[in-house]
Specification:
Elements: H1 3-14, H2 32-43, H3 54-64, E1 74-78, H4 84-91, E2 95-100, H5 103-112, E3 117-120, E4 132-137, H6 147-160, E5 161-172, E6 183-189, E7 200-209, E8 213-221, E9 226-234, H7 238-245, E10 250-256, E11 270-277
Parallel strand pairs: 1-2, 1-4, 2-3, 4-5
Antiparallel strand pairs: 5-11, 6-7, 7-8, 8-9, 10-11
Length: 278
């Protein structure tokens, strides 16, 4: 079989609609080039592409510190990225541990935040027991996980919390998808771009599954190679989130429009929830 035949067959497979929650084998956030692009996006104060803007994060950290936490509470920030939230928590008197599997982001966080402890680890493998007063997962990372991963994470977070400890996270609601339809597009990056430092073409398609889950599929074509990335997102209502979280043993403590404590009105694109360990 010729190289051209292999490429044709791969592209034909990549251009098909993925099965619901189908994972791809390519590295994404741990890829050296992509992780550098992600870190740059995290640190850009003018965009919400990877982290929210500094003013929002300041208000968010201030609000989280108003929650019923003990003096000098221990906080675990999972998916902490370059430590932008973790550093704010530490500056406000909490004892902070950050966890992320991006080596580049963790190195950046350690260099700029000596008060906190940072762990280079996939948070789906966290194995603490009765260690933290609060666990945070911020900027809708929960919905990027597939159902089996979400259940596994909930069980690990429950175990990591002290009795009465809080799990705070945010998700997208169905408003995130309102008015959006499936689409496909492509663009040429002659000098490289987000997905590769080499010249490449990127094909992008968005697929929706009953308006509760969405897949963004990126096919990156270089000279004689092609690779595919599926990025999943699930949106939630209060009831659908409760159906996942409460059976683990959590109790619901609060529902808000975002992670600054904004009141939830039902028409927000995001929803922040707080659950406690019984």
């Amino acid at each position: 079989m010729f190289v051209g035949d292999i490429m044709y067959n791969k592209l034909c497979a990549y251009l098909k609609r993925p099965a619901l929650y189908e994972r791809t084998s390519e590295k994404l956030w741990t890829d050296r080039h992509i992780s550098a692009q992600m870190l740059e996006a995290h640190l850009d104060p003018n965009t919400d592409a990877a982290s929210r803007k500094p003013e929002f994060m300041d208000r968010s950290a201030d609000w989280i510190l108003t929650l019923p936490l003990p003096q000098g509470a221990r906080l675990l920030d999972i998916g902490c990225g370059p430590g932008l939230y973790a550093k704010r928590f530490a500056e406000r008197g909490l004892r902070v541990t950050g966890m992320d599997f991006s080596e580049r982001s963790i190195a950046y966080a350690k260099e700029r935040d000596p008060k906190s402890e940072y762990l280079l680890r996939d948070y789906l493998t966290l194995d603490f027991a009765n260690a933290f007063d609060i666990v945070t997962l911020i900027y809708c990372d929960y919905g990027a996980l597939i159902p089996e991963e979400r259940e596994a994470l909930l069980r690990r977070v429950y175990r990591a919390l002290k009795p009465g400890g809080l799990f705070l996270f945010d998700v997208f609601t169905p408003e995130q998808y309102a008015g959006r339809g499936e689409s496909a597009s492509w663009f040429v990056c002659e000098n490289g771009g987000f997905w590769s430092a080499k010249p490449h073409i990127c094909l992008k398609a968005e697929y929706f599954y009953d308006k509760t889950a969405a897949a963004s599929r990126y096919v990156v074509i270089e000279d004689v190679s092609a690779r595919c990335y599926n990025v999943w997102d699930t949106c939630f209502t209060r009831q659908s989130l409760q159906s996942e979280v409460l059976p683990i043993g959590f109790a619901e403590e609060g529902l808000y429009g975002d992670v600054t404590g904004k009141p939830y009105t039902g028409d927000s694109r995001t929803m922040c929830v707080i659950f406690s360990k019984k």
